[in-house]
Structure formats: structure tokens, C-alpha cells
Amino acid sequence: MATTKNGTAAAKSDSELDKLYKNYDILVNAKDKITEHKDVYEAILAATKGSTGAKRLAATFVSKFGPKFPSMNDASLDAMFDLLEDEDSQVRRTVVKVIPDMCVDSPQLSTKIADVLGQLLLAEDPTELLLVKNSLILVIKKYPKEAMAGLFSQVMGEDDMTREKCIEFVCNSIMKHKNELFAKNFETEQFFIEQIKQVLQDVTAEEFQLFVDVLLQLRTMATRKGAQDLVDIVANQADLSSDFQDTDADYMYRLVTCYRLAVKISLERGASLDPFISFVCHKVFPILPVMEAKDSIDNILQLFAQSFLCNVTVELAKSIIELLFDMLLHYTPEPPSVDVDDSEAPTLQFTYVECLLFSFHKTVQLCPEFLSGEDATERLKDFRKRLQYFAHGCQLSHSRLEVTLKQKTNEDIQNIRKVAHATTGNINSLIKDFFHNPPSYKTKVKLSFLKEQPKVMAASKRPVPTNDTTTSPAPKRKVSPIRFSSATNTSKKTPGATAGKRQPWSVYEPPKGSYSNKLDTSSLSESNWRGGWGGGRRNRRGRGRGTWRTGGKWT
């Protein structure tokens, strides 16, 4: 009985195949009059409901003749899409192989086909998945903009699993063919960029990094303008237009992560970080002294200092110099009176001052009149007193730290010593420039928290002499004292003139913050100096996807 049924099924299948081949011959021989044989094509569509063999053959014929019957596009696509859900893997694979042929002379179909193929990226079978990827690339190559619109509709869709697979395809498969797709087609690359910009309105931290990496590979982004556009994209993601929210851990993570990425782009490609610099000066500085999260302060100030390794406009420098100077004054206190006990002296924040002083040193080069103008005499005099006091604190703390750590061989301890020495050395080197009359800004330093000096692309020209000297303090460098000098106090003192006399103010004891004379070496860590980002990895998504969820580290 079973043999009889099998024989009947086989005979039926052969009959279906025979009819399909006859219909194929009719349409092929019809040539220019093919549209007159609509009924023949409808018979082929009907065969997609037949046996397995008929489905596979019919799919091949539909992909070939479908574009010749534009009035039946919807019916053709429905038939093919139904076959993509067939239980037989051979049927699905056949359809996936031939469906790109339906896009010939029919760009309007490529959008729907790319959309559906994007959903099939969830396929678990490796062979089937490879076929899907190959077919999707073929569709994109035929009609890039139309096909990418369909694919990105899934990227911006609500199904997270499909979204993830489509993003992976964009970042890997499409970028492997970027030269073929974008090298000679500027409009296609611009369309691709615009699609990514739309996606970036709602992404996780990992997705944001992936898309930025994609943008960095594009020819358009290799230009100065393109790099600036990319920095603006990152700035928009950092939400610089909103108020600074130092108590929101998710907000702080997003801000620091985006700022770090913007600095990297700017250093490599010569873009300006004016939006970030302005944000820090106008929105962060007002509440910086009362912030409790030390790691956050360290990260923001270190990134702020690195921003001045990039191009900074004169207009921006003029708009922020007073805010920056006031912040620097806050952390370079006035010398205490002689009656103040050292334990009551103000705390010196060396890491903060290194960042702020470096930034101010770069800024005032563009606005030299701020300290050398006719109305800046008292400002410079007060500033020099503060700097001299801070320099004494650096020197004493430097010595005390050396004594404390001298017998320690632990690698972490030695790293702290190296960073601490570089920090105080940088501060003293920069301070010396402000004691020239007028102040001179020749000194260049390598920020202590940078492992290596970044290569800056097309740095802006500074109004300073061309015979700059580079100061790169060594760990054991002996720092010479800084003496206050001014136009009203230039007389030379004879040796021993001040012997036995008390100094006008006491030298501050080593700070209790970043490092001190009472170091507990068991708790020392490099992060106390370098301010590594210690927050959790949080992501940011909208439409119910939550804030920046826990993910991998951004580099």
C-alpha cells in the first residue's frame, strides 16, 4: 500500500515538473510578448504550493520571470516569502539562492527582499546562513540604497535578536565590500552614513562603538570635515546640551566614554573638541569642587587636558579663559599666613592642577594679553604667589614621597612613584613659564597619565617662538625652587642675607589626597594617581531597551 502511495506521489511530482518545463518554454519563446502569457506565469506561481521538487523549480522560474510581470510583484514576492518558511531546508536554500534575481530592473523589490533576508540572518544552520549573507550582499550590490534601507529597517526594528544580527552583518559583511560599494559612489556612502546616524539615536554602548568603528573606515570620514562630523556625532551621543548630572552613574559613564572616544578621533584626524571643552568649562566647572566621585573628576580633567593637544580656536580660548583660570585658582590656594599650622593648610590636588595648568598654559598662548595686558598686573602677581606656594608643596611632597617609597620594590608602588614624579615635574616645568617677564610659553610636557605622547594631526599654530624646548621630566629629576620675580623686585640678594630669618609663609606639608607623607603602602594603587574609570559598564537604549546596559570595555 505504501509503495503504491509513493509511486503515486512520484508520478504527481513528475507531472508537475513536466508542466513547469512546458510553461518555461512558453515564456522563453514568447520573448517580447511575454506579458501576453500572464496565465502561464500564474500557473508557475501556483506550482509553489506543490511538491518539494515543484517548489524548488517554481522558485527558480519565478525569480527569472517575475520581473517581467511587474503588475504581479506582490504575488510573486508573497509566493517566494512563503517558500522561505518551508519546512524543507532544500526548498529554503533554493529560494535564498535565486531571490536576488528578482531585483533585476526592479529596485523597488530590493528593499522588501533585503528586509526579509535581514530577518533570515537568524538562521541557525551554517550553510543556510552563509547563503543568506551571500544573497543579501548580491541584493545590496545591485541596488545599494534601496537594499540598505530594507536592511536598516530591521536594525531599527523592535526585535533585539534580529537587530543584533543585522548590526553584525553591517559591521562585518558590508564593510568587507566597502570599496566596491562606496569607493566610486559618494551618494551611496552618504546614504549609508545617514542610516547609521538614525540608528545612533537609540543604541547600546557596544553598538555605538561598533558603528563609530564602521564610520572611521569610510572615505568620507577620513577628511577633516568628516572627522569633525564624527566628533559631532559623538558629542550628540554624550548629550552635551543637557545639564551635567554628576550623581547619575549611567550619565557619567556615557559622558566619559564618549569624551574619550572624541579625543581619540580628534588626535588621529585633526578634528576640534570645542563642544566638549565648552561643556566642561560652562557646565562641569561650576560644580566640580563639590563633586564627590574622585574617579569622575580625574577622568573629566584628564580628557579635558588632552583636548588641548588638539586644535583649539582663538574664539573658544577667549570664551573660556576666565572660567578656566578661576577653576585653576580654586586648586592653587593662596599662601597661608605664618601662624597657620601645616595641618590646617589647604589640600593640594596635584593631578587636578596638572590637568588644569596644562590646559590653561595652552589656552593663554592664544590669549597672551590675559596675563601680560596692562590690566593684568595684579592678576599675574596673585597668580605667581599661588604658583610659588604650590611649587613648594610639589617639592616637599616629592621629597617625602621618595623617602616613603624608597625601600619599596613592589611594581605597583614603583608605578605610583613614576606617575607622582612626572606629575610634580610637569607642574614645576609649566610654572616656570609664568615667572618670565612677560610670561613665556615655551615648555612642552608629556602629561603624566599618558603612557606615550599621542601623535597629533595638524595641530593648530600657537603664537609662540619657533625655538620651543621640550621638557620631559625624569622620575628622579631634581626640581629647582621657583622664586617670585617682578618688575618691582629685581635686586640681587647677597649670600646669607636671609639666614636665620623666618620665611614669609610656611611650606605646606605633603597632601593627604593623591599621595602624602603618611602613605599607607598597603593600600596604594596606581588609580589613586591616574584616576582610571571605575564605573560599571552601562549601556543606553530607548524604547524600553533600558539605559546603557553592562557590556564590554570600550577602547
What do you see in this structure?
With 555 residues, the protein is mainly alpha-helical. Helix content is 57%, strand content 0%. The protein has 22 helices and no strands. The protein has helices at 2-30, 38-46, 52-65, 73-83, 89-98, 107-119, 126-142, 144-155, 160-176, 178-182, 186-199, 205-216, 224-238, 249-269, 274-284, 294-307, 314-331, 350-366, 369-372, 377-405, 411-433, 527-530. α15 (274-284) packs parallel to α17 (314-331) and α18 (350-366) packs parallel to α21 (411-433). The model is unreliable at 458-555 (pLDDT under 50).
Shape: elongated
User: What's the helical proportion of residues?
Assistant: 55-70%
* Major pleated sheet: none
Secondary structural class? mainly alpha
Strand content of the residues, in percent? under 5%
Unreliable spans: 458-555
E-strand count = 0
Number of helices: 22
Gyration radius, rounded: 34 Å
**How far apart are the termini?**
69 Å
What is the H/E string? HHHHHHHHHHHHHHHHHHHHHH
pLDDT averaged residue by residue: 81
Give a brief outline of the structure.
With 555 residues, the chain is mainly α. The protein is built from 22 helices and no strands.
List the helices and strands and how they pair.
Blueprint: H1 2-30, H2 38-46, H3 52-65, H4 73-83, H5 89-98, H6 107-119, H7 126-142, H8 144-155, H9 160-176, H10 178-182, H11 186-199, H12 205-216, H13 224-238, H14 249-269, H15 274-284, H16 294-307, H17 314-331, H18 350-366, H19 369-372, H20 377-405, H21 411-433, H22 527-530
Helix pairs in contact: 1-2, 1-3, 3-4, 3-5, 5-7, 6-7, 6-8, 7-8, 8-9, 8-11, 13-14, 14-16, 15-17, 16-18, 17-18, 18-21, 20-21
